[in-house]
Amino acid sequence: MGNSVKNLAILGATGSIGRQTLQVIRSLPGRFRIMGLTAGQNLDLLAKQIAEFQPKFIYYQSVNKHHKLTDTGCEFLSLEEIASQPEVDTVVIATSGKAGLLATLAAVRAGKNVAIANKEPLVMAGEIITREAKVSGARILPIDSEHSAVWQCLNGEPQPPARIILTASGGPFRGYSTQELNNVTASQALKHPSWQMGKKVTIDSATLMNKGLEIIEAHWLFNVPIDKISVIIHPQSIIHSMVEFADGSFKAQLSYPDMRLPIQYALTYPERVPNPELPKLEWSKIKTFTFEPPDFTTFPCLKLAIKAAKTGGTGPTVLCAADEVAVELFMKDAIKFTELACLVKQVLQEHKPIPNPTLEDIMQADNWAREYTLKLAGKKI
Amino acid sequence: MGNSVKNLAILGATGSIGRQTLQVIRSLPGRFRIMGLTAGQNLDLLAKQIAEFQPKFIYYQSVNKHHKLTDTGCEFLSLEEIASQPEVDTVVIATSGKAGLLATLAAVRAGKNVAIANKEPLVMAGEIITREAKVSGARILPIDSEHSAVWQCLNGEPQPPARIILTASGGPFRGYSTQELNNVTASQALKHPSWQMGKKVTIDSATLMNKGLEIIEAHWLFNVPIDKISVIIHPQSIIHSMVEFADGSFKAQLSYPDMRLPIQYALTYPERVPNPELPKLEWSKIKTFTFEPPDFTTFPCLKLAIKAAKTGGTGPTVLCAADEVAVELFMKDAIKFTELACLVKQVLQEHKPIPNPTLEDIMQADNWAREYTLKLAGKKI
């Protein structure tokens, strides 16, 4: 198992998950070959990664004269082309927001192992992605820590889960009142108490929208009805999620909050590989785990997501699109923290969801929601 | 899977585990047929169980004129004969102390599914039992809640565990000083804070000897070195044990402390079956899990067990035998609680363990240890 080298493409290699994926690959020499690397804007880092890992295929969004990436000998292809190259075994979707959608679909259609950290593609187009994966035989391997936990707990169980409980740290504003939330800044929201993550997902964690998106992601990944997926706040972030089985027995997965573990598990699955660089739980230092219900009133995004999930169709697409725009506006100080949920709510209210949407329906709903969110906010990005 | 009826023999049907096994069987009608029931002294209850479940084979230790068990039409056989009857698929070893050893061996040699709650057979003769199980193809299915938890966590994992952490409630005397322990009575020791169990195992839980025996049991069941098995006190008794894997990821199994769940899992494995009578974890009521290291100084039995386990050979047999006698003496108020560990320690010190013991070596060591314990205590049972 461990002896055959896996050929990887990493989409979003310069972001938080991309960088941590490359750390894992450095820690486990001889197991992986990097076939493709892609980046958005951070060409400085991409150039270094290309020099180190010598990929065959690259893609980058921005153009910068200072970087002669055209001289690297790498072939410049689109994200979708890289994701479906015959020489690639596993595609790591480490992009952020909507950016990974078409590449995820391309990888799924090409029957790849698709290690997915970027939750928006599944939220926006979960029905299409899971249907296409069944046709092509593609395997979707979750990297998100909660979904990795559920996946690990389901190992070897012959029956589907009776219930999934996603744990949440509660984010940096756990216990705040709505009034207190009115005045929080983007830089406060970006200080997550337990996880090192990208900006979009960190803001989503502060609003609890992230947990709502995870409910939808879990629904598609594990084929569990939305009302059988619940959320519990566990501020220590050591239990990464739990599964209840038909007999009432629960299993949980535990580790220190470090994305490299779920990344590594998706890459080495079903094998588990010692990695001295991963922090090990020290039980002598662990005294208490606490649990509390989420505060749906102060953090309305979680309820919005559950509602959109139950509505289905293009509802979750619109939720995602409005949230992505609203997060960007908040990070630019164009709206307040509490206005973020209001904006998403208004956009959802105005949308008539299309059931069983085609990819075109999804793209149109996405475009409409982005434009409408900006219009409502009276801003431009 | 669920459609074929399993034929069970329950050895120790009138004890705590036996009664709970029959509760599970009542809750899941149509799945099991009771082929054999055995009891020690409680013929009142055995007579009722025979009337209800109509077994083919029975055994009982004591004779009582008031019970015409000879008129039931059941065949009276020895424990070993019942355990190896061709019509029996699964043998539930619900006996206490040494009593189940020979029957466990008989069931293992006959290639049965052996659902084992009684830990002493594995502690005394783990090497022989596991070796014979490999030869016959018998499957040993743990019922002890900790070992069921480990077994559940290992489901579907292709590699052996890197480490096992057994949880312990800490028993009724958690936090007591040695001085306070001097004056505790058997009736205090029999009030376990979280589990309903038989008397022997409840006293063993109060001394932490039970956890020591579980370490040895886990060593044989899961083929994990003794120094890779540790103990953590978790007074809420909801996490029933944890497994660490090669990559540092942990899995835990959780439920309210109720033996019917691990009993049921051993009987329905690999299937999980809804049972409305089992209590379901209510996360809205769970606020805190706490963890603390065991107090090896105040509860010396745990260290004695670990030492005997590392010594190996007939060491664990002598540990078991001395403990069984000492527990009986304590329950009869013949020795103090704190004298129990002293007695076991002295007996172990006097014993020269025989490596790779035969069954005869084990029986001899067991006899010697029982006699020597009584001699040291200056008592008779």
SSE layout and pairing:
The structure is a homodimer of 381-residue chains.
Chain A (H helix, E strand, L loop, with lengths): L5 E6 L4 H12 L4 E8 L3 H11 L3 E4 L14 E2 L2 H5 L6 E4 L7 H9 L3 E4 L3 H17 L2 E4 L2 H10 L8 E6 L9 H5 L3 H4 L9 H9 L1 H14 L6 E5 L5 E6 L5 E5 L5 H9 L19 E3 L10 H11 L3 H17 L5 H14 L8 H19 L4
Helix pairs in contact in A: 1-11, 4-5, 5-10, 5-13, 10-12, 13-14, 13-15, 14-15
Give a nutshell description of this structure.
Chain A is α/β, with parallel strands linked by helices.
General description of the model:
2 copies of one chain form a homodimer. With 381 residues, the first copy, chain A, is α/β, with parallel strands linked by helices. Chain A has 3 domains: 6-142, Rossmann fold (3-Layer(aba) Sandwich); 144-259 and 276-311, no CATH class; 313-381, Rna Polymerase Sigma Factor, Chain: A. Helices cover 44% and strands 15% of the residues of chain A. Chain A contains 15 helices and 12 strands. The first copy, chain A, has helices spanning 16-27, 43-53, 79-83, 101-109, 120-136, 145-154, 178-182, 186-189, 199-207, 209-222, 260-268, 301-311, 315-331, 337-350, 359-377; strands at 6-11, 32-39, 57-60, 75-76, 90-93, 113-116, 139-142, 163-168, 229-233, 239-244, 250-254, 288-290. Chain A has a 7-stranded parallel beta sheet with strand order 4-3-2-1-5-6-7, with helices on both faces. Chain A is globular and about 55 Å long. The N and C termini of chain A lie far apart (48 Å). The relative contact order of chain A is 0.12. The mean pLDDT of chain A is 95.
